[in-house]
Amino acid sequence: MDKGKGVMVGGRRWAVDFTDNSTSPSSRDIPDPPGFSRSSQDQDDSTLSRQKKDAESNWKSQKAWEVAQAPFKNLLMMGFMMWMAGSTVHLFSIGITFSALWQPISALQGVGKVFESYKDSRVDLLGPKLLFIALNLGGLALGVWKLNTLGLLPTHASDWVFSLPPAQEVEHSGGGILLR
Amino acid sequence: MDIRVFLLLLLVLVSSVEHGFSLYEDQVGLMDWHQRYIGKVKHAVFHTQKTGRKRVVVSTEENVVASLDLRHGEIFWRHVLGTNDAVDAVDIALGKYVITLSSEGSILRAWNLPDGQMVWESFLQGSNPSKSLLSVPINLKVDKDNVILVFSKGFLHAVSSIDGDVLWDKDFSAESIEVQQILQPPESYVIYAVGFVGSSQFDVYQINAKSGELLKHKSAAFPDGFYGEVLLVSSDMLVSLDATRSNLVTISFRKEEISFSKTHISYLVGESLGIPVILPSKLSGILAVKFNTLLVFIRVKSEGKLEVVDKIANAAAVSDALSFSEGQQAFALVEHVDGKILLTVKLSHDWNSDFLKESIAMDHQWGLVQKVFINTYIRTDRSHGFRVLIVMEDHSLLLLQQGEIVWSREEGLASIIDVTTSELPVEKKGVSVAKVEQNLFEWLKGHVLKLKGTLMLASPEDIAVIQDMRLKSSEKSKMTRDHNGFRKLLIVLTRAGKLYALHTGDGRVIWSLLLPSLRKSGSCKHPTGLSVYQWQVPHHHAMDENPSVLVAGRCGPHWDAPGVLSFVDTYTGKELNALGLTHSVAQVIPLPFTDSTEQHLHLLIDSDQCAHLYPRTSEAIGHALRSNCIGVVDEYCFNSSDLWSIVFPSESEKIIATATRKLNEVVHTQAKVIADQDVMFKYISKNLLFVATIAPKASGEFGKPTPEESWLVVYLIDTVTGRILHRMTHHGSQGPVHAVLSENWVVYHYFNLRAHRYEMSVIEIYDLSRAENKDVWKLLVGKHNLTSPISLYSRPEAMTKSQSYFFTQSVKALAVTSTAKGITSKQLLIGTIGDQVLALDKRYLDPRRSVNPTQAEKEEGIIPLSDSLPIIPQSYVTHALKVEGLRGIVTLPTKLESTTLVFAHGVDLFLTRIAPSRTYDSLTEDFSYALLLLTIVALIAAIFVTWVLSEKKELQEKWR
């Protein structure tokens, strides 16, 4: 999960734009090479950039879907770990259960950040976001379920009455065998 | 399951180490103390003839035979006989055996004088109850065997002092004589047995000391009749009172004819002084007659003539005569003069000269002198000196010598009636600084030693010093409250009517008070103390006041005798107030109300079933509802009426034991979580009474009833409505029953005749009317009535579970641990027949134990079923000690939830601290602070070193 995010965010750190969009020859010190026609190149240039942008948004949406699906693998992994941990309360099972609870929660908190780098006016991020949230919620549910099987959720009457003080009595009696 | 279960599991894991409460050798005495007593002395025999250890052999009212060191009053050896094995007489035979006659003259024992081991024991036969007399003649020999003469149960026995064989016996039971004295004149082999037949005939039997043959029988009638007992004044003269108690009768019995001589007392003393009582002191030629406070000494001359020698006004006690050099005889006389005691030693033949006269200042709290025993010693200038042993009103024992108290023993503590506690004052700041500075060097030395101990560098001597320091730590004997609540005052009431405050830290007596209201006076002839209650426990707004206790007593042996109340400040030990009541005290009921000065309201029930409310303040009356007493002008007296009664059929059931919950017991929770997260609601009520009845036929001794005709029926009764919640019959079982009731369970101990074993049973009672409260959502939003006040008239449905287990020992007392919040698991404290206190986990007495508990039940801590309860040697809280004559066990909660103070009292006192689930809320005594400190230091060092290294590395990186 972390790994995927890292790749996405740090994917494009710097870029050099080799395309020269300037049209006026005066702005350049260097004369055009012989046989070079600037007009034809201008026309060509716009189609090229549109193509490029299309490719980028495609790539972005694809990546976004990939990111959105990433928790699924995690889910499977977690499920396996939980099965391994068993249903008795000990250090290992408690650790796994709490990490299973913590990961979805932290992921859900950072939903915006995860998809920030794929933000684009032409990319629809709602789908991936929803999937991402759903999968994380699934993970969370798995964690809660595990918590319950460990008996750490107050779902029984005993959890609510275990420390109830005894009810007060209205009557009071005293006495016993006569003092000797 | 929940977090609590998890914690519980941890607890169980911790406490499942079976000897969780056992001690290490070096922990003995660290949190426990033990005091040995003997009780009020009845007889004392000195043994000071030879050089070496000077000792006195005593027998006491607590049925103790003991040998005490005369120099310091320490116990050399001590034997506590059974409760119905009272000592009748003590003497020393052959200079090396202590002879005791006990059990109304049926058991004669010889103990080795130096070490107290029993040499022989013989059971003397006889059927008629009679006076028990023991006589150890100095040189009466039968076949080179020194003879001990015993008269008991209508028989005269001659017993060999070597091996306890009965050489001969003479049966007097057919003669209808009440033998009063046995006399064996040293010069002859004739034993005289003298006594009365009826009230007006005097008989003398002469018996051959070698064979037990009857030599002569003389009889003489005395038409006026006799009253009381006879006193042997000289070897041929007896003195008694006549039936009207106005004449002294001297009887001369060794001549051919028995002759009586009657002297009118008022003729002797000149006026009528009241009812005469002949003191049983043997003064050789003199008798002491007591009239109220006046003591008159009368010399018996030849021919039965009497002559008054002296009258002494404030005499307290007279000892027997003691013969010392050249046949001289001396006796001690003790008088009370101006708050001091005046000791006079007089010679029997020469009244006018006082051999010794000493005045000794004495603590008022010891009261009056009741008994005196005299002994002589040779001073360095070869003259005779005397020392006396005196027994005081409060049962304490003192040795006086050369006008000083050599030692004293507070023997009143051997007969504790009731125990209560009081908190100590709160510590005030800035008090102990000077003390610390003064002992700074000592303090440093102590810490260095301790450090050496923890680092295992200490030599054996150092270890001994460290152990001594631990034992005598001033921390535990301070006179202020401590954070854990271990330091308290135990307020104990003794049979002598004396109140003691003992410090729980080291057991020393902080103060003692011989209650003036429980002393003999004109209006109160036979006062007895009954019980002690906490009267005022200041906290919150009454913090400045000292706490006080209420002592209830009565003037007389019967329960309709008028009562006395006494209020005592527990910090100063002064009596604040005393009330002589017009009504009797049959029962004292502490009420759960206090007034504005934090005085607890108490209801005293008298023998006419009227209730009297104390304290008598207008504020207290605000709690009262019922109508006032009829015919008594007293607005604090209330009528009572019968609410309910349960009649047990008298032909088949007889009450032998009851148990109620302790008033101060705190229960943490009403629910019990059982396996599979199920919940059971405990039936918790302060108004629960356990009653055990047995078949009247089975109330006799062991072995008499057959299993078919004996049964034990137990009841659990709601005392508000009189409803029987549970009834159970144990067929073929028999008392005595000891029971303890706590929370929602009762444990009781009885004898199973069929199995020929002792059994312990447990009954747990659960409330079914609450069982429906199992809806989580309702509980979640608080829609339940589990904590709302309930009335027992709503008749909550109850369910019980019970189980019986064999227990190998018979029991003297049964108690249960109590803690401040009631969270800690409980332990039963069993006072065993061996006078020890055994701690048994309540988990062993769980009715839900089964042969194969499920996994969930195991997790809950249920032990697999076994037919008998284990006795784990390490779980004796008294470890190697014995609390001789154990009568009661009191448990006191401390502020630390895990810990309980256990006070066991009998002839001895014992106090210790126990933690039934181990001290989970504090570090244990043996926690290695040194290791913790070392770890911390090492970690800090490691952090520092790695920090420096990393700094260096970073710098190098930057230079590269």
UniProtKB/TrEMBL annotation, chain A:
Entry-linked InterPro entries: TMEM85/Emc4
Ranges annotated as spanning the membrane: 80-105, 125-145
Ranges for region Disordered: 16-57
Pfam families named among the record's database cross-references: EMC4 (PF06417)
Main location: endoplasmic reticulum
The organism's place on the tree of life at top rank: Eukaryota
Full protein name: ER membrane protein complex subunit 4
UniProtKB/TrEMBL annotation, chain B:
Domain ER membrane protein complex subunit 1 C-terminal: 742-959
Top-level lineage group: Eukaryota
Keywords of this entry: Endoplasmic reticulum, Glycoprotein, Membrane, Signal, Transmembrane, Transmembrane helix
Signal peptide range in chain numbering: 1-22
GO biological process per UniProt: protein folding in endoplasmic reticulum
Cellular compartment(s): Endoplasmic reticulum membrane
Transmembrane segments: 927-950
A single Gene Ontology CC term: EMC complex
Residues annotated as domain EMC1 first beta-propeller: 23-411
Membrane topology: Single-pass type I membrane protein
One matching Pfam family: EMC1_C
Family label: Belongs to the EMC1 family.
Name of protein: ER membrane protein complex subunit 1
Source organism: Carya illinoinensis (Pecan)
